[in-house]
């Protein structure tokens, strides 16, 4: 058998096996890091500081609310800091994390929260899609979209 045929057979075997060029376990080992970042964001949304929020969200953040408003990093942080968006409690359930590659992860969950937006008490129940990106060794929220349950 020629070298060319062996090479083609090996390439086909890799292509059809679903193997990737990432080291074994690299996506699975990133799941706890992404989960920890998502939890830090949950806590920072309840007790916000500009520094904690700024460290968790990407500069290019696109943050879609269930009512249609889309925030940037600056407006997302400002609304939490000035109480326009005020989370008293946030409970996350049904969370799934899919690490797509070494720098991208998709997080889905249900969110139930007690709010006090601009001093008006309320409750929200949402489904959330978050796209996290590893930037400079840290997982940051790049995009988020919420829909009402």
Topology:
Layout: H1 3-17, H2 26-46, H3 50-56, E1 57-64, E2 70-71, H4 73-81, E3 87-101, E4 104-117, E5 120-135, E6 138-148
Parallel strand pairs: 1-6
Antiparallel strand pairs: 1-2, 3-4, 4-5, 5-6
Short account of what is shown:
The chain has 149 residues and is of the alpha+beta class.
Characterize the structure shown.
With 149 residues, the chain is of the alpha+beta class. The longest helix has 21 residues, at 26-46. The model is unreliable at 2-25 (pLDDT under 50). It has a single domain (25-148), classed as Nuclear Transport Factor 2, Chain: A. The protein has helices at residues 3-17, 26-46, 50-56, 73-81; strands spanning 57-64, 70-71, 87-101, 104-117, 120-135, 138-148. A six-stranded mixed β-sheet has the order 2-1-6-5-4-3. It contains four helices and six strands, in the order αααββαββββ.
The top level CATH class name: Alpha Beta
Q: What sequence of helices (H) and strands (E) makes up the elements?
A: HHHEEHEEEE
How do the strands line up in the largest sheet? 2-1-6-5-4-3
Query: How many beta-strand segments?
Result: 6
Helix content: 25-40%
CATH architecture: Roll
As a percent range, the share of strand residues is 35-45%
Name a few traits of the molecule.
globular; 149 residues; 44% strand; Nuclear Transport Factor 2, Chain: A; alpha+beta; 35% helix; disordered N terminus
